[in-house]
Design goal:
- With 123 residues, this protein is mainly β.
- The protein is 0% helix and 45% strand.
- The strands form 3 sheets. A 4-stranded antiparallel β-sheet has the order 4-11-9-6, with no helix packed on it. Strands 8-7-5-10 form a 4-stranded antiparallel β-sheet, with no helix packed on it.
- A hairpin with a 2-residue loop joins strand 1 (2-8) and strand 2 (11-17).
- The protein is globular and about 35 Å long.
Length: 123
Amino acid sequence: MKNYTITVNGNVYEVTVEEGASTGAAPASRAAAPAPKAAPKAAAPAPAAGAQGSVAVTAPMPGKILGIKAEPGKTVAKGEAIIVLEAMKMENEIVAPADGTIASINVSVGDSVEAGATLATLN
């Protein structure tokens, strides 16, 4: 299961999505207290196999890279935008899952990526 925080028209929702479920049922969601406007938490830390950094930042969905907001060596805080991913005609900021330093950026502007692709790594 993956947990996402989604903001729609200023309302914040916590959504849990079960992977591999093909029942056609809509995922359950619950309203949360309004929070400052922030990008959805789109990537979770995971060990990077063969990458320079110890934390992988992955694509939560297939899409196209529109922008890169950080470069290797930059120190980032948890929740800070690293990459802008266009999916379903929406711009999604992919944020740092933890405080750290960008070890590598594995994509370029214009690249198409699949869900789960490693976009960047952090130390």
